Amino acid sequence: PDPDPDPDPxxADPPVGLDERPANATCLAPPRPxxxxxxxxxxxxxxxxxxxPLFMLQAPGDDSRWYxxxxxxxxxxxxxxxxxASSSVFLDLSxxxxxxxxxGLLGLAFAPDYAGSGIAYLSYTRTPPGGGMQSVIARxxxxxxxxxxxxxSEEVLLTxxxxxxxxxxxxxxxxxxxxxxxxxxxxxxxxxxxxxxQTTTNLLGTFLRIAVAGTGDYTIPPDNPxxxxxxxxxxxxxxxxxxxxxxxxxxxxxxxxxxxxxxxWAGDVGQGAFEEINLIERGGNYGWRFxxxxxxxxxxxxxxxxxxxDPVLDYPHSEGRSVTGGYVYxxxxxxxxxxxxxxxxxxxxxxxxxxxxxxxxxxxxxxAETGRSISSFGEAEDGSLxxxxxxxxxxxxxxxxxxPADTIPASLSETGCVDPADPTRPAxxxxxxxxxxxxxxxxxxxxxxxxxxxxxxxALEADGDFGFPPGAVLMKSFRRDGRLVETRLFMRHPxxxxxxxxxxxxEAQTDAxxxxxxxxADVSGSPWxxxxxxxxxxxxxxxxxxxxxxxxxxxxxxxxYPQTGRSANQLRTLDAxxxxxxxLAADPADLPALPDPFGSAALGLRARAYLHTNxxxxxxxxxxxxxxxxxxxxxxLAATGTCDLPGTTGSDLGLADARLLSPGDPGRSxxxxxxxxxDVHAMPxxxxxxxxxxxxxxxxxxxxGLDGCD
Length: 710
Prior knowledge:
It contains seven helices and 41 strands. It is mainly β. It folds into three domains: 294 residues, 6 Propeller (Neuraminidase), CATH 2.120.10.30; 179 residues, no CATH class; 103 residues, no CATH class.
């Protein structure tokens, strides 16, 4: 025998699914359709970024500086110069402000004589001694010549206890009459039988108007509707509150005065179907909770109309889901918009202009798909307008110029993303992928691919999300009973804005035709929902990085690649062909991975993976929902804002002592109960017509097995 046998060969490298990166010259996101769009947005101060900014403004008569409110409690200021590199803290209330859900630092109004008095007024929410949330209106002073406001100078003028932590309103502004106007939401009373917005003995769901001076308490303007009654400076009273200017509002979010006419414009965020724009007048009752927009909301009341003031416009949730009130344009850079009201939508990032006809009827025109979470607008002293993006940036409005009417092909076969000889197959440049925890899509089977420009790479973000370059396309096809139903393209256009488009397959399975504006169709005897372009963006949230399902923990699993027939780890494969930048810093075995919700992992892990995929796109920090839930997989249960906590919207589905998640009791858990509905209380609220019975059983078993929040 050989006394020195050969050593064992070294272990082979793990397999990868592709040998090289496929060339992609056809499936590329084109320029965004321009159509009738008339404006675009550009970063105004590119070196500056803010934490959840909610408002921007300048001091009266001073265009040298801007002031930005951050939800978490700070006001920051900076020089009004395009290349400004830094901002400073103007006021810090972060140790006082309760920023849970829709709370936070919500409003700032400089006194008209601020240059001399140094006085400003703020609206914010805090936690009162007994717990919960309380809205505060307070006066502050500058003691250093206007460089900062002194927190110690606070004089609280008005407090309002909030029944829930959403629908707080909070905007404030001095009117042309010199009085201070304040918008207050209904306190989250969507399901509140007291109907706060129609109860004029409290301050919820209203516009307030008060007179303030440099010192002392506030007084009541003599022509307020209930002037002469005892004040409601703690939020309610025995008689109609004299602070009220108008009422019947759900959650007025951002208002403004037309500097030429004095008209007061406001956006009022809707409940389940409509958003509305209002012209606010003294003594007006704007109808909530009897009506939502022009539509009846509460049939049990008989939907009265006598004495109610109509909105000037409403729009359905197929077009947007959270209105942001804007301004009547009085600048000089955009003369075609002079005297016209511009407003936006927080969830969809859409920007509209409002016009009226000779009969006084109003209609809106879409100006831009900004791709931003429009939390407010800012009006400069010269009348120019800016957009505040909740994601951190400030943007200025600019003419869009001209562009092609529509760049998105009418047929899937013309997009370059499928094989022109067989549109049921992807083009050669596409790369398949599969998330570990797939999204529920009414029982459909799905195939997914990604396509990048040949010089583009995927950025690995700090939170594990995938960042795609402009030009990238994500494609997903849906099958029922083995037949193709729909193919969706989610594109990051060359300007960096994401948008979604969908195609319906024909009976012959030879091609698919683009569906514009969404549609409901019968497929194999069951209804199928084709999402509108707006609904695509409602699910693909900015907070979740837009490209849902493409993150380290989702793609850290094996896939059989049809190009080679090999099964391999998806992360390792993408890394091996040079798509990841930076490259993987660790072996996939040492990186997070979501389990299959219906696989063999522990029940708690599978349930949390299901919620991560199906709920956390919206329910996470910075998401578009009014709740404070954070349902991401790696967040401890006690930190999700759900465990043994009451719902935040006032809608308890008729249950006594309901909880968002009640350990051991699915039947008291609103999270589980709403999963099983497909009505106005459904979760998800859009995109699904059928309940996921397996998912419902999974979450039920998990909740039933919990004995606490640890």
